[in-house]
Each structure stands twice: as C-alpha cells, then as structure tokens.
Design brief:
Oligomer: single chain
Radius of gyration: 16 Å
Strand order of the largest sheet: 1-2-3-4-5-6-8-7
CATH architecture: 3-Layer(aba) Sandwich
Shape: globular
Length: 180
C-alpha cells in the first residue's frame, strides 16, 4: 500500500500513526501476516489458511462495539490495534494488538500505539477501564513497562508449541493513568 491511498491518521504519535482500519489496508503483505505462524504464535490456533476474501470480509465487517486501527510508521502498515467489546454502559473495552511486520518487532512501536489508543479510549470514547490479556511475553513486558495493573494469571490456559503457558491479565483505569 502506498501513502497516496492511505486514509488520514486518526491519531498521531511521535513515530506511529493510527488510521481507521478499512479495506484500503488490504494487501498481500497483510494477508501474509494473517498466515504467518510466527506472527500468530500467541493467538488462538487457526483451523485454515486465511484467504484474500476472508481478509476483506473481516476488514468490512467491523462490529459496532469495536474500533480497529492500522498502525503505520512512515506510511508503512506494520500492524493493527483495536478496542473490542466496548460496553458503553460500563465504559469498558478490551485492547488487542497484532504487530505483523517482523522487522519492526522490539522497536517500541507497539508500546507507542498502545499509549495512543488508551488516550483515545479515555478521552474520545469516555471509557473508564481498558483491559488486555495475552500469553505473549513481549506484550506482557510492554504492559508492565506502561504501568498497567496486573490483575492476574490464567495458569496454563494457552497451548503454544505443545506446551501449556500462562495468560496474563492487565487493566488500566482512566482515573489512575499509568506513568508516562
């Protein structure tokens, strides 16, 4: 995808821009991420290969209780981040992230995107609480570094490469923002 066809950023950080995730982000690169075992290592097991049609259908079918964003760096789509299960009555949501471009792993882009999305959730959506859960050690290190509250461990709740591993649960409240 070239920057000429990219929607304008919704949120802009020092290095990362978040754009509403639309069909405009459909690409062979994105499809490759959705079928890359290393990218999907800490996600639920897939029952089949994702096709172009599957990807486009998913991009077009955004639930009313979700806000999905493409993460870009210098105009390059590197992954997605979302708030899902937004409950207006309770002012809560769950954060999810997928950093698909492996060459940018470990460079702090995910952390910056999480900070942008949390600010958006609290300020623009009026959320009170955002939670996240993951077995991914890199994600859990980010949450710890951002000062999210560790709410618990789902012991041996995820199978990864034949081994049972823990899922860590995190949350942050609007009234108790993490230190920047």
């Amino acid at each position: 995808m070239t920057t000429d066809h990219m929607p304008p950023p919704t949120l802009q950080g020092p290095r990362v821009a978040l754009h509403v995730l639309t069909r405009a982000f459909a690409s062979n690169q994105y499809l490759a991420w959705l079928n890359d075992p290393e990218v999907l290592r800490y996600r639920a097991p897939k029952s089949r290969t994702m096709t172009w049609e599957d990807m486009v259908a998913w991009l077009d079918d955004v639930p009313a209780d979700s806000r999905r964003f493409a993460m870009t760096v210098a105009g390059r789509h590197i992954g997605n981040i979302s708030l899902d299960g937004i409950q207006k009555d309770h002012a809560t949501a769950d954060l999810g992230i997928m950093l698909g471009a492996r060459d940018v792993w470990g460079k702090g882009y995910g952390k910056e995107a999480i900070e942008l999305l949390v600010q958006y959730g609290f300020k623009e959506l009026g959320l009170h609480r955002i939670s996240a859960s993951s077995p991914n050690p890199a994600f859990n290190a980010i949450m710890r570094s951002l000062g999210w509250d560790h709410e618990g461990t789902a012991r041996e709740a995820f199978m990864c490469e034949g081994a049972r591993i823990n899922i860590e649960r995190w949350a942050i409240l609007a009234s108790h923002p993490a230190p920047v």
